[in-house]
UniProtKB/TrEMBL annotation:
Keywords: ATP-binding, Kinase, Nucleotide-binding, Transferase. It comes from Aplysia californica (California sea hare). Residues 5-189 form the Guanylate kinase-like domain. SUPFAM superfamilies: P-loop containing nucleoside triphosphate hydrolases. SMART domains: GuKc. InterPro entries: GK/Ca_channel_bsu, Guanylate_kin-like_dom, Guanylate_kinase, Guanylate_kinase_CS, P-loop_NTPase. This is guanylate kinase. It holds the Pfam family Guanylate_kin. It is an enzyme of class 2 (transferase). GO terms for molecular function: kinase activity. The gene is LOC101853775. Its EC number is 2.7.4.8.
């Protein structure tokens, strides 16, 4: 049963509140959700376990998997390849959890063009406005002036894409956090209930 649950693709501009919303969801429904494990060609850092932090692979293995159409999406960042394999998403489904993919706009486009079954549920988290977004990112204290400006520049592109009809199944406006959270929960509650019922039946 759980294999037929749709993976969740969540996207939205930096600072729109994806992590905040997902953390609330994971805390309220422990054991129901999991991120898929990505593949990368970069070297593991101290403490990073293969198969947990990432699947660490050689460039050759990565390219073979691309050739076999094994990736849902992949991209290159600072000289290294990163990607989400279809298998790693299906593995989460088979383990009885809902798979969550937190990806940026190009990842969303690739996943939309893929033959992934069941078809993922696409959710966009929309920030209330640029000024508010700027304040939040400044408040988070993770950005320099330069990285802040870079992030703000990509926001308009992401919002325009989201508002093209049919790009996402749902748009969650994150103005008031509680309202946004209830919206997100409402989208997923049927799947969460199915999952919990099947866990109860299995005596987990
Ligand atoms: N509805 C809200 N009202 C006020 N502040 C919020 C709201 N949602 C999130 N925040 C704050 O905004 C900041 C950015 O949120 P968060 O880190 O969840 O964004 P994100 O979309 O995951 O960003 P990134 O893609 O850069 O990781 C955080 O400091 C968070 O506490």
């Amino acid at each position: 049963m759980s294999q037929s649950l749709r993976p969740i693709v969540i996207s939205g501009p930096s600072g729109s509140g994806k992590s905040t919303l997902l953390n609330k969801l994971f805390a309220e429904y422990p054991g129901c959700f999991a991120f898929s494990v990505s593949h990368t060609t970069r070297n593991p850092r101290a403490g990073e376990e293969n198969g947990v932090a990432y699947h660490f692979v050689t460039r050759e293995d990565f390219q073979n998997l691309i050739a076999q159409n094994g990736f849902l999406e992949h991209a290159q960042f600072s000289g290294n390849l990163y990607g989400t394999s279809k298998k790693s998403v299906n593995d989460i489904g088979s383990s009885g959890q809902l798979c969550v993919l937190d990806v940026e706009i190009n990842g969303v486009k690739s996943i939309k063009n893929s033959d992934m079954q069941p078809r993922p549920r696409f959710i966009f988290v929309k920030p209330p406005g640029l000024e508010e977004l700027k304040k939040r990112l400044q408040g988070r204290g993770t950005e320099t002036e330069e990285s802040l400006q870079k992030r703000l520049d990509s926001v308009k592109e992401a919002i325009d894409y989201a508002e093209e009809s049919g790009a996402y199944d749902h748009i969650v406006v994150n103005d008031d956090l509680e309202i946004a959270y209830e919206h997100l929960k409402g989208i997923l509650i049927e799947d969460i209930t199915k999952l919990q019922t099947s866990k109860l039946k299995k005596g987990e």
